[in-house]
Design goal:
The structure is a homodimer of 371-residue chains.
Chain A (H helix, E strand, L loop, with lengths): L1 E2 L3 E2 L5 E2 L2 E2 L2 E4 L9 E5 L26 E2 L4 E2 L4 E5 L14 E2 L4 E2 L9 H14 L5 E7 L1 H12 L4 E7 L7 H15 L17 H15 L2 H7 L22 H16 L2 H13 L10 H4 L6 E7 L7 H13 L4 E6 L13 H18 L4
Helix pairs in contact in A: 1-2, 3-4, 3-7, 4-6
């Protein structure tokens, strides 16, 4: 969908003449009340569920969660996935033409925040004729957007579902983002963010960024279980005694993930989205008091965290829970004992999916939605 | 000290005509029985204690631990610090001339292991006329060398002191090493490890490697306490809305650490030492059974770990403790409640230093050493 009118951004800049890519699943009911907005995290897109005809391995990133008869049942709910501004999966981003200059944005794409994304999503809903959402949901950075919705448009959502999320990044979270950004920015092929014009991609930096990311998505436990100290060429028996060859399975896995990512992800998008993560901090304008910051929220909340997630640890979700309780908000909280670290929010864990299913069944009953 | 004879290495290669830099503190007694060998970790050297005359900030890396009247009292013990082969602080390493080719080693420097370092240290002690050590001690990778000593030369040491150490690296530990190595190796200035000949240094890669390292040395807690979400230019009030400028204090700190490190540390040394860490695994030849592997050890042990160290967590020290107990070895173990993460082993924590002091006082009594 094209938006001609300029969107004012938190930075004071604005963006005009932009597109948002989105997908929908299920049917909007006559009352236009059954819509569920799904917000994506760092490297995902509007393609949250289903498969593309004739394309193998094209499952949406929350395919295990969303679909007919699934936890978020598209026989009952109208689900909307939207690719955020600045991303690289169809919505306007750094690789597109800046209408003000006629040149590719590159590093000149304005810095966008979680709050900006929420504003852009709200305009999309306006255009779709949807005033009130049954729910906004997301994992990780997507959960931050759901929280942003509850604060920016408190009257436009009934429920906010935050999975593996946090009220802001810790210093360590910011540190990992910063190292990844430095790897990209100092890659000689980055060309100050205008690499498109040079016909190159800063793949070295993207690979390093993705390898760092992957380490933080997994738990130490699951890494030890999946890879441990296994050698890649175990049949050799002994080490290769090499500093550069792949020796351990975990090295092979990380290099593969890095290579794959560098082939499809935009470097400027990586910078923008990690910065949006860094900047999100609703308590900031309330002297760091999250309870004060969340006083505006009217939605009911479901929060889910995972025991081995050290990127957005359960303690971070509990901060939100406490702040909501301080405001006597209606909330459910589930801490799932799962070995998979932060990645668990994307995986097919029956207890996790059961919690979400039961919550959405409750929304259905409350709203008297019939499949 | 120069060593003309070739040292056979675990890889099957050997190295000849090499030098080891070392420092000593205190006096070797007449019985030659009061020597304590101190082994260094990734980026340290033989300069473990004391200051160089006329040089500000030249304290040895374990200056708070070792010296006259300190926990390891050099009025009583003869302390030896040695720079390992392949390092970049005086001992023969990748930036030196390979006597076989007449050219700088660079990436051709042989891969050295913890076991190789222990062998080289043993030869140094032979040359110094020291048959038996009162103790071998080290933190982190240095602790692995102390453990290596107990297994390779069980009759040559009375005590092994392992601080913040581990019996091997986990998959996550290896993963962080691998990302750091890839950052270095893929830096265009690395030139396949022969950058010396090109008059350049792979500083981009070294900076990234060091930034990653620093994150893993600190605990999430101490990072939040020291840096939290503080802005570097807090007086500005608002964010800069920039992906590349320094916004948060933690970014400034990491960039500074990266820059400093890239100015003095050798890239090939970084690869070699992280690989030595990856490879160390005494249980490997015993089907993964650490208790079997440690059956050879005769020394008495002190192990110390720190509660917030997530790089070499207390659980890893406890694995060694259990394996030693299975072998009915004499050991002391202290788990220090300290907020500083892995870095705690270098810091001036009174409980930590108290434990080491008391242990070395015990050695002094046992050996009837008088100051």
């Amino acid at each position: 969908m094209h938006f001609a009118a300029a969107l004012p951004l938190q930075s004071g800049r604005s963006i005009r003449g932009y597109d948002l890519s989105f997908e929908t699943y299920g049917q909007l009911n006559a009352a236009r009340s059954n819509a569920v907005l799904v917000c994506h995290a760092l490297n995902a897109s509007h393609h949250v569920a289903g498969v593309y005809a004739g394309q193998d391995k094209s499952e949406g990133w929350w395919h295990s969660m969303i679909g007919p008869g699934k936890a978020v049942d598209t026989d009952r709910f109208f689900v909307i996935g939207v690719n955020n501004l600045g991303s690289c999966f169809g919505s306007t981003g750094p690789m597109h033409i800046n209408p003000d200059t006629g040149r590719v944005y590159g590093a000149d794409f304005p810095v966008v925040t979680v709050e900006d994304w929420v504003d852009a999503q709200a305009r999309l809903l306006d255009a779709l004729g949807i005033r009130t959402l049954a729910a906004v949901m997301g994992g990780s950075l997507g959960g931050m957007q759901a929280l942003g919705w509850a604060l920016q448009y408190p009257e436009r959502l009934r429920h906010a579902v935050l999975v593996a999320s946090a009220p802001n990044l810790t210093a360590e979270n910011i540190a990992f983002n910063e190292v990844a950004r430095r790897a990209i920015v100092t890659d000689p092929d980055f060309h100050a963010g205008h690499f498109y014009a040079h016909g190159v991609l800063p793949k070295r930096g993207l690979r390093i960024a993705r390898m760092i990311g992957h380490i933080t998505y997994l738990s130490d436990d699951v890494m030890n279980e999946k890879f441990g100290r296994q050698l890649r060429d175990a049949a050799m028996g002994d080490y290769k005694y090499s500093t550069q060859e792949v020796e351990f399975q975990i090295e092979s896995y990380l290099r593969y993930q890095g290579d794959k990512f560098a082939d499809y992800f935009d470097a400027n998008t990586y910078l923008l989205i990690t910065r949006a993560l860094d900047y999100f901090d609703p308590a900031r304008n309330y002297g760091g008091d999250l309870s004060l910051a969340l006083a505006r929220a009217q939605a009911k909340f479901l929060l889910v965290s995972f025991s081995t997630d050290w990127r957005f640890a359960p303690a971070r979700s509990r901060e939100i829970v406490r702040a909501l309780l301080d405001n006597r908000r209606d909330l459910s909280y589930a801490e799932i004992d799962a070995p998979h670290g932060h990645d668990a929010f994307l995986l097919d864990d029956p207890r996790y999916l059961g919690v979400v299913r039961s919550y959405f069944e409750g929304i259905g009953r409350e709203m008297e939605l019939v499949p």
